[in-house]
Design brief:
alpha+beta; Helix Hairpins; RND_pump_MFP; Multidrug efflux system; MdtA-like_BSH; coiled coil; transmembrane transporter activity
């Protein structure tokens, strides 16, 4: 009996200890769960969106070409005596590029001058003879003799004019022995050297001069986008005029060119094979940063529209190709929104629906969050270099300025 009571007492004591341990564990588990919940609020950088008017832009691929190109060919034949230009260097309009031997042409010009003097010497005699027969006609001179004297005078005068024309031609040939640059530009390497014989108007060019300031950029645009833009301008959705559009250039290294371009002309015929048309834009190029053949991207500002600008760094595309962005919901959780209609605006997407004034767009920390996850919003700004920084580090007034690259 005593042993049974001892066993029951021992069991009750062990049960009490286990119950105490269980209560302590439950309290610690609850505290741990609360701590884990608090830690799940991931800090993210956000910007508050404000409705405003933003530019409508499009990015077009393009290729650079010289505004003027001239293949240099000789207009007279002869031996090249001098090549004063530096290959690959800059030349100015009127600079001598090639000097062809001019002695034969100077001799021809001298002969023409002598021919003029000879022809002019016969004119006074012919003139005197004509005047004499004119006085004597009807009283010792026949009409036939008068007409013969008139003819001789006209022939003498014509020989003078012919000799003068020959001199002009000879002097032109002398001038053509100096081959000059037709405009300011950059010159290629020479295909002929000193001592080579060249022929007038030969097929092979001596060299080529290209004018690089200004430079042309040939942009390719689809006819579909052109029709869409015209319809948007006509309906008033987009305010602007494509004819007065401003062009900005993105170079191959990703940097923006510091000169603005203007529309020069565009082809009026759409390509049957590609469905595109060519836009030619004129850009100042004083430092020759842009070279012919270089591939670039041009940003075309077509007009303006009222809406909200979503920086491209804060957006992505889902499996269906739709534009998506992450927002902070009213209960502090990540909310994914899909935008069916969005227009490019510099380095942002311009949307008009699905956003309210003051909505918080998540711009940093996107890699560590997912939809429905609690987050802690941290106010941010996007500076003029496209970098997300805390609000106090950004310059005043840059909240909604699309960052230029």
């Amino acid at each position: 009996m005593i042993r049974r009571i001892f066993l029951v007492s021992t069991a009750l004591a062990i049960g009490s200890v286990l119950a105490a341990c269980s209560d302590s564990g439950n309290k610690q588990g609850a505290a741990g769960s609360a701590g884990a919940a608090a830690q799940q609020a991931t800090p993210v950088g956000v910007i508050s969106l404000t409705k405003a008017s933003f530019p409508i832009t499009t990015i077009l691929p393009g290729r650079a070409e010289a505004s003027q190109i001239a293949d240099i060919r000789p207009q007279v034949s002869g031996i090249i005596e001098e090549i004063p230009f530096k290959e690959g260097g800059e030349v100015k309009k009127g600079d001598v590029l090639y000097q062809i031997e001019d002695a034969p042409y100077l001799a021809t010009a001298a002969q023409a001058r002598a021919a003029i003097a000879k022809a002019e010497a016969s004119v006074p005699s012919a003139q005197s003879n004509f005047d004499r027969y004119q006085r004597l006609v009807g009283s010792g001179a026949t009409q036939i003799e008068l007409e013969t004297a008139r003819t001789n005078l006209l022939q003498a005068q014509a020989e003078v004019e012919s000799a003068k024309a020959a001199l002009t031609a000879a002097e032109i040939d002398v001038d053509h022995t100096k081959i000059i640059a037709p405009f300011d530009g950059v010159i290629d390497q020479t295909a002929y050297n000193v001592g080579n014989v060249v022929a007038a108007n030969q097929t092979v060019a001596l060299t080529t001069v290209r004018q690089l300031d200004p430079v042309y950029i040939l942009l390719t645009e689809s006819s579909t986008n052109l029709l869409r833009l015209r319809e948007a301008i006509r309906s008033g959705e987009v305010k602007g005029n494509a004819g007065n559009a401003a062009f900005r250039l993105i170079l191959e290294n990703g940097k923006e060119y510091d000169q603005k371009g203007t529309l020069d002309m565009s082809k009026s015929v759409v390509s049957e094979t590609t469905g595109t048309f060519i836009i030619r834009v004129r850009f100042p190029n004083p430092d020759h940063v842009i070279l012919p053949g270089m591939y670039v991207r041009a940003t075309l500002e077509l007009g303006a529209e009222v809406g909200y600008a979503l920086p491209q760094l804060a957006t992505s595309r889902n499996a269906n190709g739709e534009l998506t962005a992450q927002f902070v919901s009213a209960d502090g959780k990540v909310e994914t929104r899909i935008f069916e209609n969005a227009s490019p605006s510099n380095n942002a997407w311009l949307v008009t629906e699905g956003i309210n004034h003051g909505d918080q767009l998540i711009v940093s920390g996107l890699q560590s969050i997912s939809a429905g996850m609690p987050v802690k919003p941290m106010p941010m700004k996007i500076n003029d270099r496209g970098i997300v920084v805390p609000t106090e580090q950004a310059a005043s007034g840059e909240a909604q300025k699309p960052a230029a690259k």
